[in-house]
Amino acid sequence: MPNSIVLTGPMGSGKTSVGRLLAQGLNWEFIDLDALIVKQAGKSISAIFADDGETVFRGFEHQQLSDLVGRERIVLSTGGGAVINPENRRLMRLIGPVVNLTASLDVLAARLVACNDRPLLQGEEAARVAKLERLLQEREHCYADSDIRIDTVGKSVEDVAAEVLKRLSKG
Taking the mean position of all CA atoms in its chain, how far away is CA 135? Predict the structure, then answer.
């Protein structure tokens, strides 16, 4: 079993829910990368995007990942776009194995239909789904650059967490 676990995937893939359950079961600390950024910036993710732009947000993201290298017994849930920077992916691997949670566009869209707090998914539902589809296509090669990929469609949070542990224990 590794010393820490990093969860990646698109928004709506279940990183936070699965991460919390994994951390609880392992008696490890759960860390949400976006929550660290909110604390560092002193404002919401949406406010960072609106006031400072995505580039500033991505800088916060990189800094927080750098600060987490060397930490043990953590389950880290990253934001959906954290993987777009190759240096971030390198830092994630220094933290622990990278587990990518996936789901189909239809499932992700259904999970996110009521979310209005996602800065990259604004507008009417059709526009949000189109944007989500574009983000998935743009980021697929980054998500594929992981140690393990798990499809979450049709699985409970408990089932996904159990699959993560099973696949990680196989080495």
Answer: 14
